[in-house]
Automatic annotation (TrEMBL):
<keyword id="KW-0479">Metal-binding</keyword>
<feature type="domain" description="Amidohydrolase-related">
    <location>
        <begin position="52"/>
        <end position="373"/>
    </location>
</feature>
<dbReference type="Pfam" id="PF01979">
    <property type="entry name" value="Amidohydro_1"/>
</dbReference>
<keyword id="KW-0482">Metalloprotease</keyword>
<dbReference type="InterPro" id="IPR010229">
    <property type="entry name" value="Pept_M38_dipep"/>
</dbReference>
<keyword id="KW-0378">Hydrolase</keyword>
<dbReference type="InterPro" id="IPR006680">
    <property type="entry name" value="Amidohydro-rel"/>
</dbReference>
<comment type="similarity">
    <text>Belongs to the peptidase M38 family.</text>
</comment>
<dbReference type="GO" id="GO:0008798">
    <property type="term" value="F:beta-aspartyl-peptidase activity"/>
</dbReference>
<dbReference type="InterPro" id="IPR011059">
    <property type="entry name" value="Metal-dep_hydrolase_composite"/>
</dbReference>
<keyword id="KW-0645">Protease</keyword>
<dbReference type="InterPro" id="IPR032466">
    <property type="entry name" value="Metal_Hydrolase"/>
</dbReference>
<comment type="function">
    <text>Catalyzes the hydrolytic cleavage of a subset of L-isoaspartyl (L-beta-aspartyl) dipeptides. Used to degrade proteins damaged by L-isoaspartyl residues formation.</text>
</comment>
<dbReference type="InterPro" id="IPR050378">
    <property type="entry name" value="Metallo-dep_Hydrolases_sf"/>
</dbReference>
<protein>
    <recommendedName>
        <fullName>Isoaspartyl dipeptidase</fullName>
        <ecNumber>3.4.19.-</ecNumber>
    </recommendedName>
</protein>
<keyword id="KW-0862">Zinc</keyword>
Amino acid sequence: MLTLIKQAECYSPKRLGKQDVLIAGTKIIAIEADINLDTNVACEVIDGSDLIVAPGFVDSLVHISGGGGEAGFASRTPEMNLTDATIAGITTVVGALGTDDVSRTHSDLIAKAKGLKQEGLNAFCHTGSYHLPAKTLGESISHDIMYVDEVIGLGEVAISDHRGRQITAQQLAEVAAESRTAGLLSGKRGTVSIHVGSGKAHVNLLHDVANNTDVPLSQFYPTHMNRNAELLTAGIEFCRAGGTIDFTTSTTEYDLANGELAAAEALAYCLDKGVNVAQLTMSSDGHASLPIYNEQNELVGFEVGTELSLLSSFQQAVKQFNVPIEKALSAITINPARILGLNKGELKQNRDADVVLLRQSDLTVHSVWCNGKKMIEDSQIVANGFFNSAN
């Protein structure tokens, strides 16, 4: 079947104005001002006059197989379901292990990514975890990146965090160089995802590596950079030195009340300070454990991240903080895709048909296609995962 979206406000994520978008099979085959078809082939025509058509969202950090729980074994978080992503407009996820790389394994992580792909989602993952030496599926970081299709990089390696291994610049440089080289050999980016905690060193370790070795700053992709104002300031300096930073959309009321900035606010603040939007992204940290620590690093609360927070933060950026739609979209589509080396996040002829329709009135999700397969229609789930039923 062909699908023709007529006269929607089109963002590629660059604003293109009113356009028609034609989907055939798994691809976008045309984006034009006016498409008229003369064919006997079945074609669904969608009136997009009150809608925005945009790339499916790229969520660059999701704990797709569940995360460890800092409140003990009973607090290990559940795995993500297909519809957790699709109802939020997400068509591409990148999974990772975090604090727990003992009860959570790469075998399970990669199997989950393969399962999500079987259900129709674009799913990738990182090898490694918070800790170094890096745990891997195969014999090395290089092996995983080069021989496992779903593995695109390393991470999320923890710095400035009491739960990390307190690694040195030399240790980080070595694994970053290995990830980079493996990426070059396999046509991948080999990005190193960096979990940044609330420690006072911020991202100094990344600067040390870039200043004293041949590993460029652009090899690192630090996330959680909206933890507090001081870290955000360090993040702006990181961008000015040539890096890119990511803001986490899942949060807690406690953290917001104790210095964390909402991802949408952090995005708007950086843009106001002159940071190039291409250096800024947002990710959900979906299904991660969100432990709440006091100043003595004592656990005082616990919540779980949600993929839906990515959509909510996009809406908040536009409606509350006046970020232009194309810039807010760039932060959750083409920017993370480019940083991770994925051919995703852009509406373009002959690209994969990862498409989201948003209502112009309130930016809620109307419909979602992933590789041409309709996942959401008129805000209702039409494609379910193997174990989750329609809701």
